[in-house]
Design goal:
Rossmann fold, about 250 residues, alpha/beta, single chain, binds 2'-deoxycytidine-5'-monophosphate
């Protein structure tokens, strides 16, 4: 550490924006990077999924009603320590319910509604205000945090992403087929990238990281290295920690 280097602290805001398609490994990579670099983490997809869950539970479809629900949604995203983050609706821990593919598809559908996006945009900016932050999603580098210090577009081939999801589901004891996952993911990719408002695409200044041939550990190491390089430019340093600090 040079004499001018300092650990990032409150008041020295540093933001990393990670975008990419479903199953690229954004969540696992960002959680690890948040812990190692002492950044707060926000998985913006969890917000869309939480609204998707409410939509399914209450049978809502109208964009204006959904936007009102989005603005009032009692959502919180909590750091439980040791790299574990949980999503809550009010006092209910909905983390596991949000992982369901039906909820993911509902999230993708409502995410195409401009009124919903603008209601959730406010939440994301408010959540991140004043924090050293890493956030992931589809539009965090293009729309939510266009002035982020570092933007990464994390991707992998559709086949590899579907395989990763299949392994995850198998480990969780869920019975599903590769083709089912592949088709659902292809549909979601198309909807997320094809919508008019804030479509999934790399920001012009994003660093592209294709993880098709990388293990999770290799992906994490590459992202942490990019963060360290970017911090160095800003004259801060990343202090390894087992806890992501909020
Ligand atoms: O990242 P994820 O798979 O949990 O996201 C679920 C859906 O939410 C995704 O298909 C599209 C939507 N989403 C979005 O439109 N913008 C974001 N920043 C994050 C997610």
């Amino acid at each position: 550490m040079t004499t001018t280097q300092q650990t990032i602290a409150k008041g020295n805001r540093f933001v990393v924006a990670v975008d990419g398609p479903a199953g690229a490994g954004k969540g696992a990579v960002c959680r690890a990077a948040a812990s190692q670099c002492q950044l707060a983490y926000l998985e913006t997809g969890a917000l869309y999924r939480a609204l998707g869950l409410l939509t399914l539970q209450e049978g809502l479809n109208d964009p204006e009603t959904l936007a009102t629900q989005a603005a009032q949604m009692p959502f919180s995203y909590r750091n439980m320590g040791d790299g574990i983050f949980r999503a809550f609706l009010d006092t209910d821990d909905v983390t596991d319910a949000l992982r369901n593919e039906t909820v993911g598809q509902a999230a993708s559908r409502i995410a195409a509604m401009p009124a919903v996006r603008s209601a959730l945009l406010a939440f994301q900016r408010q959540y991140g205000a004043g924090k050293n932050l890493i956030l992931d999603g589809r539009d965090v580098g293009t729309v939510v945090w266009p002035d982020a210090d570092l933007k990464i577009y994390l991707t992998a081939s559709l086949e590899e992403r579907a395989n990763r999801r299949l392994r995850e589901l198998e480990i969780a004891g869920k019975n599903t087929s590769f083709s089912e996952i592949y088709d659902a993911m292809a549909e979601r990719d198309q909807r997320d990238a094809g919508r008019a408002d804030a479509p999934l695409k790399p920001a012009p200044d994003a660093i592209l990281l294709d993880t098709t041939e990388l293990t999770l550990t290799q992906s994490i190491n590459q992202v942490v290295q990019l963060i360290k390089n970017s911090l160095k430019k800003a004259d801060f340093e990343c202090t390894e920690s087992t806890h992501g600090l909020l």
